[in-house]
Amino acid sequence: MSASASASATAAPGAAESLRRRSREALSALAVMFLLGMAANLIGEPEGTFAIVVDTIIIILHILIAIGLVVISVRALLAARKAALGERAALWGLIVIIVTFLAGVLTVSTQSEWASYLMSVGFLAAAALYGATFFASYRVGASPAAPAAPAAPAAPTPPTPPTGA
């Protein structure tokens, strides 16, 4: 085995673990985003000072985690490329997160119910895509960075009889 093959073989498990970690971060952030979004919808149009303060805190947390989710999505794509696993799912995950983020901006600025619906569709798509990158991180043996299994030794050949003079 060459030095570069052994270096990539030792890098692959770390890269797969990094992808797994980024996928878990994305899924966790999506779960928190879902809960905060549902809380904001349950409050609706707040009446009274306490409800307004709570609603504002929920919306601010929702926005901050959305920004963090964009960063996590970029990091997940970089980890997927490094591990050579789940690259397509990570790229689509980033695209979906960006579109969902923009739908959130549109929801806040226009109070559009359709933009809010697009956010919920984006949540489902992103959760499925980051679930796919999470499971792809366990397929280290399928990555091109994994070394090939050593070939079995050849059976000894029988000696050839001497030819007559």
Question: How would the blueprint of this fold be written?
Answer:
Blueprint: H1 3-43, H2 49-83, H3 87-110, H4 113-136
Can you walk through the features of this model?
This protein is mainly α and 165 residues long. The chain has one domain. 75% of the residues lie in helices and 0% in strands. Helix 1 runs antiparallel to helix 2 and helix 1 runs antiparallel to helix 4. The longest helix is centred in the N-terminal third of the chain and has 41 residues. The two termini are 46 Å apart.
Shape: rod-shaped
- The domain count comes to 1
Structural class: mainly alpha
Order of helices and strands: HHHH
Q: What is the percentage of strand-forming residues?
A: under 5%
Contiguous uncertain segments of 5+ residues = 1-11, 142-148
Distance between the termini: 46 Å
Question: Got a strand count?
Answer: 0
Oligomer: single chain
Arithmetic mean of pLDDT: 83
CA radius of gyration? 25 Å
Biggest beta sheet attributes: none
Helix content: over 70%
Number of helices: 4
What's the short version?
The chain is built from four helices and no strands.
What are the key terms here?
165 residues, mainly alpha
